[in-house]
């Protein structure tokens, strides 16, 4: 059953009670592969789901990239959504649920906020704005004046040296203070060595650290490919995610129920292995990996997407919790699948404190997982393109002790 997108059909007093999952206290116990298992006795909570609609004021908002380039600023309660092709910034007042203003930034010249293709936006606590680009970072002060542009290279950032052919991905994350930029680095050529690890750039000291990770090799077995010459040799692999706070990096992927926690200051990290009561802790990978045509590639890719997929972690800054939505096919056919959605919650120490399957009537209306989610005043907002209109599916958790 799909979620009915209507305020009248989804009243705010509609509660779904999540039965508590009582787990043995296993915090920080070593597992046989060296990772920590951080399950503890879970908490009990209820939730409400509704839909929030945004009044675009007769403007056509940029929704083509799923709000991937946007940033929600909790200090001002504003959502900033940038069109990377035109450098037009749409500012959404989340309290009023409407478009507040449009800012047109320069695309050329000394004050441009675009070099090749804008990949992200961050509004800092002080009101400064950072724009990440394909291979650079652009800095505006609180007055909107361009005060810096830095290439993601050895020349701009001192410290660890990027090896030959290695590049830092411009689609990284900047934390709310504007002190750190974190992204993947590696060899991005089609026949290259692939991802190698994380690059941590100190934007105040203009220095960098490169932390090599071996997790990417374990994802190679899931890659689906088509013959070279068609779509330049199409590839479909697993996604690696970066969730950034003021003190740490959470690194995870879509195939494994585990994560890495890295300290932003020291670079030290630990691996945490989670355990699900509802889902396999690793994608089975039972779909064919080699397609002989584009049609077959699409067919196999459909099967791939029906296996368990773990989403990125979203940080609830008010409670200090981390939330993740995952999904897996639980019925229907390959051509017409039915999916179940699952929520996992970690506390600030990355202990798993809750896990539940959403009720059938609350199945989320996404083709996959939400392209953007963020917490606003303790509620989880998930972007929804509703017939080219901006909306959000909102999940409001209610904990017993609140």
Please provide a brief summary of the model.
This is DUF4221 domain-containing protein. With 402 residues, the chain is mainly beta.
Which terms summarize this structure?
402 residues; mainly beta; six-stranded mixed beta sheet; five-stranded antiparallel beta sheet; 1 helix; 31 strands
Written account of the structure:
With 402 residues, the protein is mainly beta. The chain has one helix spanning 294-306, and strands at residues 16-18, 29-30, 36-37, 45-53, 71-73, 78-83, 88-93, 98-104, 120-123, 129-132, 136-140, 146-151, 158-159, 167-168, 173-174, 180-187, 194-202, 207-212, 224-225, 235-236, 240-244, 248-253, 258-263, 269-273, 309-316, 321-332, 337-346, 352-357, 373-376, 379-386, 389-399. The longest helix is centred in the C-terminal third of the chain and has 13 residues, at 294-306. The two termini are 31 Å apart. It comes from Algoriphagus winogradskyi. It holds the Pfam family DUF4221. InterPro entries: DUF4221.
């Amino acid at each position: 059953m799909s979620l009915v997108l209507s305020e009248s059909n989804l009243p705010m007093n509609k509660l779904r009670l999540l039965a508590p999952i009582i787990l043995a206290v296993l915090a920080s116990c070593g597992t046989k592969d060296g990772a920590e298992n951080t399950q503890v006795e879970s908490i009990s909570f209820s939730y409400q789901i509704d839909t929030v609609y945004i009044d675009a004021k007769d403007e056509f908002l940029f929704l083509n990239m799923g709000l991937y380039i946007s940033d929600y600023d909790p200090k001002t309660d504003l959502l900033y959504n940038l069109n990377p092709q035109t450098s037009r910034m749409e500012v959404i007042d989340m309290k009023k649920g409407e478009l507040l203003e449009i800012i047109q930034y320069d695309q050329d010249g000394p004050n441009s906020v675009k070099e090749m293709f804008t990949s992200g936006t961050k509004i800092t606590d002080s009101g400064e704005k950072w724009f990440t680009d394909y291979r650079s970072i652009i800095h505006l002060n609180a007055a909107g004046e361009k005060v810096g542009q830095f290439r993601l290279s050895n020349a701009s950032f001192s410290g660890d040296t990027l090896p030959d052919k290695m590049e830092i991905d411009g689609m990284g994350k900047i934390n709310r203070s504007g002190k750190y930029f974190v992204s993947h680095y590696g060899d991005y050529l089609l026949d290259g060595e692939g991802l190698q690890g994380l690059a941590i750039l100190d934007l105040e000291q203009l220095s960098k650290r490169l932390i090599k990770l071996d997790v990417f090799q374990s994802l190679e077995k899931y890659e689906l490919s088509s013959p070279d010459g068609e779509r330049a040799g199409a590839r479909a692999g697993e996604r690696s995610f970066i969730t950034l706070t003021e003190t740490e990096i959470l690194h995870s992927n879509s195939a494994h129920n585990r994560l890495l926690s890295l300290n932003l200051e020291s670079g030290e990290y630990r691996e945490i292995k989670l355990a699900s009561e509802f889902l396999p802790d690793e994608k089975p990978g039972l779909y064919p990996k080699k397609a002989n045509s584009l049609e077959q590639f699409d067919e196999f890719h459909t099967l791939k997407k029906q296996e368990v997929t773990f989403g990125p972690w979203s940080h609830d800054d008010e409670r200090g919790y981390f939330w993740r939505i995952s999904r897996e096919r639980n019925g229907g056919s390959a051509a017409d699948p039915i999916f179940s959605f699952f929520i996992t919650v970690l506390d600030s120490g990355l202990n798993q404190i809750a896990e539940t399957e959403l009720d059938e009537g609350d199945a989320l209306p996404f083709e996959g997982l939400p392209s953007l989610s963020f917490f606003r005043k303790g509620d989880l907002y998930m972007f929804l393109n509703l017939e080219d209109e901006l909306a959000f599916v909102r999940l409001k958790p209610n904990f017993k002790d609140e």
